[in-house]
Amino acid sequence: MTRVLLTGFEPFGGEDVNPSWQAVSLVAAGPPPGIQVTAARLSCVFGTALEELAAAVEAADPDLVLCVGQAGGRTGISVERVAVNVDDARIPDNAGRQPVDEPVVPGGPAAYFAALPVKACVAAVRAAGIPASVSQTAGTFVCNHVFYGLAHLIATRRPALRGGFVHVPYAPEQVVDRAEPSLPADTVAHALRAIVTTAVTTREDLRVPEGATH
Fold first, then answer.
1. Mapped to the 3 state alphabet, what secondary structure does 62-110 carry?
2. pLDDT value at position 73?
3. Which of 88, 128, 144, 160 is the 20 to 30 Å CA partner of 45?
4. Nearest-CA neighbor of 9 among 36, 47, 40, 37?
5. Are the C-beta atoms of residues 171 and 6 closer than 8 Å to each other?
6. 155: Cβ–Cβ under 8 A, 6 or more apart, which residues?
7. Among 187, 185, 192, which Cα is nearest to 171's?
8. Residues known to be catalytic
9. Strand 64-70 and strand 2-9: pairing?
10. Predicted structure pTM score
């Protein structure tokens, strides 16, 4: 049975919930057939989140890691293509830390590509009737911090491991008083199951245009 580690985040930015953790918890409670899913909740704190991620990887010994985070304002599921080696926080994290132009890993490569078939994963989510796209940036907050940290862990310590990052929109309860796009947690969980299944069974990505013009 394939072992998969899913991570989500605690709430941040004054929110009461984080849809990434809501959805990840649902997938862990009802995983795709033939896949063993472990869920871990990460702190929205620079540095601490990477320590928690490393501990979760050590404990679960997974074949695949999919980290998930909130991207308020996005309209669908975003499968991230690239992680960059920079922390540049527009807002403080949950510990009040606000690094500016600091590397995630001093001396590390400028960027890593996801070790996932990102386009095939997007296609699988769309086939499930859920909006999805390839994203060319995971931002420079804690989500990118974790994505880069995961990629660096794979490159330096666990070369057989595969992994990547997915951003999800707000949950409906977060936007009842504002005009922002959202997706229910069970819909996001359905998308994550499609991504996990595709990532586990697909090694060669689709060769289709999913780039951005700006």
1. CCEEEEEEECCCCCCEEEECEEECCECCCCCCCCCCCCCCECCCCCCCC
2. 96
3. 160
4. 40
5. no
6. 109, 112
7. 185
8. 80, 143, 167
9. parallel
10. 0.97
